[in-house]
From TrEMBL:
Source taxonomy: Bacteria, Bacillati, Actinomycetota, Actinomycetes, Micromonosporales
Lineage: superkingdom: Bacteria
Protein name: Uncharacterized protein
Keywords, comma-separated and alphabetical: Membrane, Transmembrane, Transmembrane helix
Transmembrane regions listed in the UniProt entry: 6-22, 34-52, 58-76, 88-118
Length: 132
């Protein structure tokens, strides 16, 4: 089950990257943040039965920390403050949590980190000129 969730997350990240490259949405960072949240939630949902069987009540925080972490950049964007910092902190926490749980379910959460890093990197990308 963990392998399936990991492969699904990787495929999801690749699809989001393809969509961003082909469609070039106006607010790419928003698409990346929402996609990271969606992939994290779907991975957590897929791993819930396995994690509850294995860890019982501890599944709440084992799966809850990545979901809340992926939610922070989306909330920061909605508030309009410190979205870059939220992207970087979320990527760092998700990476740490994924490595901490790396022998179990943690690796399935790591692909979403790529989207958060891409969102943060998009902050420094040159903006296209609107002058004609």
């Amino acid at each position: 089950m963990i392998d399936l969730a990991s492969v699904g997350a990787i495929v999801g990240v690749l699809l989001v990257g393809l969509v961003v490259l082909v469609r070039k949405p106006a607010d790419t960072r928003s698409v990346l943040r929402w996609s990271a949240l969606a992939i994290t939630v779907l991975v957590a949902a897929a791993l819930t039965p396995f994690t509850v069987d294995d860890s019982g009540a501890a599944a709440t925080y084992l799966l809850g920390v990545p979901v809340v972490t992926a939610l922070l950049p989306v909330l920061a964007q909605r508030i309009g403050r410190l979205a870059l910092v939220a992207d970087l902190v979320a990527a760092l926490v998700l990476t740490g949590w994924g490595l901490l749980l790396g022998l179990g379910i943690g690796g399935a959460f790591l692909p979403a980190v790529i989207l958060l890093i891409a969102s943060a990197a998009g902050t420094w990308a040159p903006r296209p000129s609107t002058a004609a």
